[in-house]
């Protein structure tokens, strides 16, 4: 039996970590391979990114991913950290890694785009695989 490949984007909010719990409640460890992804969007000033921000962001991102790995103890988990526009990077990663399901948590902001979040909305429009949006 082919294992389902699941991509879980997290952004560091407790809300985004609910996706991890959802996957644990829904799938047994022997049914899935999980990739947890964190993308940091960088602010450029005159085309130059601030190197301290890069180092700090990378340190935070890797610590966040390790925390997520601990939550998913017992599961086959890969971690991915990168810089870029989160929506684009999630789509690219889902295609490159032959992902079956992307699991994201909806936003708590108001208005349609903000109900699910602009990044989630982008992923919904562009993903070639199943996208599951779970409540907070």
From TrEMBL:
Pfam (any one): Usp
Every UspA domain range: 4-135
InterPro entries named in the record: Rossmann-like_a/b/a_fold, Universal_stress_UspA, UspA
Top-level taxon in the UniProt lineage: Bacteria
Family the UniProt entry places it in: Belongs to the universal stress protein A family.
Protein's name in the database: Universal stress protein
Source organism per UniProt: Peptostreptococcus canis
